[in-house]
Amino acid sequence: MSRFRIALALAAGLLGMAGPALAQDVYPSRPITMVVPFPPGGVADLTARPVAAAMERTLKQPVGVVNKTGAAGAVGMQFAATSKPDGYTLLLALSSISIIPEADKLFGRPPAYTVDQLTPIALISADPTVLVVRTESPWKTAKDFIEDGRQRPGQISYSSSGIYGTLHMAMELLSHAAGIKLRHVPHAGAGPALTALLGGHVDALASGPAVVLPHIKAGKLRALAGWGESRVAALPDVPTFKELGYPDAEFYIWAGVFAPRGTPEPVLARLREALRTAVADPEFKGAMDKIETPIAFKQGDDFARFFAADAKRLAEGVRKVGKIDEKKP
Amino acid sequence: MLETLQNLALGFSVALQPPILFYAFAGCVIGTLVGVLPGVGPLAGISLLLPATFGLDATRAIVLLAGIYYGAMYGGSTTSILMRIPGEAASVMTCIDGYAMARKGRAGAALAIAAVGSFVAGTVSVVALMLLAPPLASFALRLGPPENFALLLLGLLVLAYMSGGSMLKSLAMAALGLLLGMVGIDPMSGYFRFAYGVVELGDGIGVVPLAVGLFGLAEVLASAGQPTPPRVQKPKLRELLPSRQEWRNSMAPIGRGTVLGFLIGIVPGSAHIISSFVSYAVERRLSRHPEEFGHGAVAGVAGPESANNSATSGAFVPMLALGVPSGPIPAVMLAALMVHGVSPGPLLIQQQPALFWGFIASMYVGNVMLLMLNLPMVGLFVNVLRIPYGLLYPAIIVFCVVGVYAVNGSVVDVWIAVIMGVLGWLLRKLDFETAPIVLGAILAPLLEMSLRQSLAMSDGHYAIFVTRPIAAVLLAVGAALLLLGLRAWIVRGLDWRGRLALAEKGDAP
Known about the structure:
With 329 residues, chain A is an alpha/beta fold.
C-alpha cells in the first residue's frame, strides 16, 4: 500500500468519525440498538424483531436487536436503564420489568435498576394469560376449579416459568382475588412449565394463549378462564375472571418499548411517531399474526397510565407472595 | 411399516429438492464451524442465526437450524482432540482421551473415529426418531421432576468412574464443581446466592466459560510453564486413518453411545451434555483396560462422541411429536416454527407431513454430508499441530476469549474463563483432574431444581421418590451400583483405580 493510500484511508476514517458529530441535530443519524433482555425465540424477541424492522423503514437507519440475557431479564434491563439517554439504545421489555425491582426491594438488596430509570415510549402488544388444565381433569369450568381450590387448600398444583415470573404472578393474582391457596412448582421457563402440565406433573398453568392453542385444539388441554379485560379472540367461549366476579385477577403478558430516562423530548417524539407507523405496517401485522399475538398499541399518557396501573398490581402481587421461605416455619 | 416407507418417500422428495439440500448443507457447514469455535456452541449458533431464518419458509428454516445443531456435535470434537479445548460443552469428555491420542500422534485416528461415530449415531438415532417418536414422546412426558432427579443422581455416581488417579481427589473436584453450581438465583425462593452484587452471576457460572477456562486456557498455561516446549507434531498421511485394532475397539462403544445418547436425549429437562459423561463412564466400566482411559483410549472418544450426536435426535422426539421443548435448543427451534405460522403441537405430524418427513429425510442426508465434510477435513485439521507453539498458543487464547464473549456478549463470562484457566492450571500442577468439576457444575443446578420441584409437588414428602415407579427403579439401580462399588472397594481392597494409582506412582520419575 502506498503512503498516499494510507493517508487517504486515514482521512476517510477521520471523516467517518466526524460524521455523526456534524449530523447530530437530526435524529437518528446512526444505527439504533434495541435491547431484548430475553433469549432469541421468546415472546420478547419475536415481537422486537418485526418492530425493529418496521422502525427501520421509517427512521431510515438500521435498528439492531441485541439479546442481552440473564437473571430473568435483569441483566438486559439494567444495561438499558444505565445506557446513555441519546435514543440510540432502546429496550423492549415485558411485564416482568416492574416485578424485578419489587423483588429486589423484598429481599432488601440493591436493585439492579428501578422503573423510573426508564421512560415508557409505546405499548406494542398485551396478551392476557389463560388458565389451562388437562382435558381429563375434573374441572370443567373456572368455578369448579376455584370451588375445589377452596375445599382443598394447597392441594392443587401449578407450574410456572419461574419464581416471581410472569406466569407465577398471574396465578398469585388469581389466588388472592379468589381467596384460594394453590401449590406452586416453579420451572425453568414457560416451555418446561407447559411440558410439566401435559405430563401430568402439575394440575394447572397460567399461560399465554398462543402456546397452548395447538394443545387445546388437539384436545389435550382445556382453557377455563382468561385474565384479560375481554375474552381472547381465539377462545370466544372462554370467560374472563372479570366476568366471573374476580376483577382483581387481571394480568397481561405485554411488550413495550422504553428508553433510558433523560432521553431528549424531540428524540422521544420521533420514536413515538416511528412506532405508531411501525404498528400499522402490514408486514409487522403479518408477523404478529403468525405468532398469534394481538397488537395493542398505546403511547403517551395512555401507556403511562396502563404501565402505572399494571406496575401497582404487580408490586402488590409480589408483596402478597412475600419471601417464599418465610411463609413456611 | 409400508406407511412409514411411503412417508419417508414423501420426506425424501422434499429433502432432495435443491433448495432444501442447500439449506441442509449450509446448516451442516455453519454447525461444523460453530462446533469448532471454542465456546460458541449449538445454542449460541442457533440463536444467532434464528433471525436470519425468518425470511425462509418453515421447512427450510427448520432444516437449516437442525443442521447447525447436529453439525456442531461433529465439529465439537475437533478442537477437543487437537488442542484440548471443548468446541462445545458436550465435547468436554473428548478432550481427555482425544487429546491424549493426539499427543501420541494419533490425532487423525481420533478425528476419524469421532466423525464415523457421530455418523453412525446420527443415522441410527434418526431411524429411532422416525419409528418411535409418537409412542416414545408420550412416555417421555411422564418423566417428571422425581424421575429426572433419580436419573441425575445416577449421573452423580458416574463421577466415581471419571478419573484415573485418586478417588479422593476426583471426589474433591466433583464437590468443588457442585459448589460452583450453587452460584445463582435460588430457583425456589428467588434469593441471589454468592452473586456479590454481580447481576450477571444470577444465572450461575456458565458451563462454557468454565469448560473453556479449565481445559483450553489451563492447557496453554500448563504447556507454557514447561521448561522445554512440547514437540511439534509432524503427522504423516498414513497415520491419519485408524488402525484395525482401533476400529475394533470403537465398534461397541459407538453402539452403546448411540442407544444411551438417544434415551437421555428424549428426557425433557435433562442435560444432553450428560449423555457424553455417562457414555464415558460406561465405557470405562465395561472396558477390559480401564487403565488406558485418560491416556488415549479410543473408546473414550468413540462412546461420548456418538452419545452426544444421538442425544440431538432424541431431543427432537418430544419437540416434533408433541410440540413441547425438551431443552433450550428445541425451544428455539419451536419458536422458529411459530414465526412461520406453524403451530407446533400434537397434531404437527398429521397436519404438516411434508415438514415432518422432509425434516427426517434431511437429517439422513445431513449426516451423510457431514461425514463427507468431516473425513477429508481430518487431514487438513491435523496440520494445525504443525504450527509452532509460539504462534498457536496466542491464537488459542484469542479464540477462547472471543468464543466465550460471543455466547452472551458478557465480559463477566470472560473473567470467569480467565479465573478458571488459572485455577485449572494450579489444579493440574497438583495432579487434580478437572473434568469432574465441569460435570459437578453442570449437574448441581439440575439436581437441585429437580429435587426441590419434586418436593414442591409432594408438599415436602420424600415418599414421592418411592411411590413413582420409574423413579423408584432408577434409584434402586443407583443404590445397587453404589453397593457394588463399595463391595469391590472393601472386599478386594484395591480395584483397578487403586492399581492404576500405584502403577502411576511407579512410573513417576
